[in-house]
């Protein structure tokens, strides 16, 4: 089971990296073309601003998901540096993971409410005619993914806590 999850994680990592790379190149290229066409060629192409914002939205949300996967999201690391006991460090890790899980569960719930509202009142991106859920899907992917990674962090934190507890117990009754 763990081997399959590790393989899924490797595949997900590669897909996220490629999507982020493609979105970065697309946003940069589109903005260069937008500036060039507007100020050099004096063209105003309808929908390019919206398209660049749509791609940037996906880029930001995929970036947040990558940071969550790598555990590189914003943290305050003062407390772990002050803790020298492995058990206390593991307790802190579980606490942080649980707080993150609760916050990401709110993120998922709010994203669901946003989608539900959008289904009741369908809207489109004006210049492109695309449904609004295309941009909102980026938020949904990030919410569900970050919640899954927070759950992973809780599980790994609990395992580290159990290991720290086992390591701190004296070896009694063994020869």
From TrEMBL:
Q: Tell me, in one coarse class, where this protein mainly resides.
A: membrane
- Compartments where located: Cell inner membrane
Q: What membrane topology does the annotation report for this chain?
A: Multi-pass membrane protein
Q: Which residues form the Tripartite ATP-independent periplasmic transporters DctQ component domain?
A: 28-159
Q: Which UniProt keywords apply?
A: Cell inner membrane, Cell membrane, Membrane, Transmembrane, Transmembrane helix, Transport
Subunit field text: The complex comprises the extracytoplasmic solute receptor protein and the two transmembrane proteins.
Q: What is the name of the protein in this document?
A: TRAP transporter small permease protein
| Gene Ontology molecular functions | transmembrane transporter activity
Q: Which family does it belong to?
A: Belongs to the TRAP transporter small permease family.
Q: Which organism is it from?
A: Microvirga vignae
Please describe what this protein does: Part of the tripartite ATP-independent periplasmic (TRAP) transport system.
Q: What residue intervals traverse the membrane?
A: 15-39, 51-69, 90-112, 132-151
Q: Which GO terms describe its cellular component?
A: plasma membrane
């Amino acid at each position: 089971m763990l081997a399959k999850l590790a393989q899924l994680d490797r595949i997900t990592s590669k897909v996220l990296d490629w999507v982020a790379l493609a979105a970065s190149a697309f946003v940069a290229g589109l903005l260069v073309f937008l500036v060039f066409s507007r100020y050099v060629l004096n063209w105003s192409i309808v929908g390019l601003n919206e398209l660049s914002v749509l791609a940037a939205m996906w880029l930001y949300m995929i970036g947040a998901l990558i940071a969550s996967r790598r555990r590189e999201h914003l943290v305050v690391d003062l407390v772990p540096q002050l803790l020298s006991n492995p058990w206390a460090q593991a307790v802190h890790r579980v606490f942080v993971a649980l707080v993150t899980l609760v916050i990401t569960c709110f993120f998922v719930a709010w994203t669901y409410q946003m989608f539900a509202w959008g289904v009741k009142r369908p809207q489109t991106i004006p210049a492109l005619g695309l449904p609004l859920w295309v941009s909102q899907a980026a938020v949904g992917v990030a919410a569900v993914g970050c919640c899954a990674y927070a759950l992973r962090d809780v599980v790994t934190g609990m395992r580290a806590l159990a290991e720290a507890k086992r390591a701190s117990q004296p070896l009694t009754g063994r020869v």
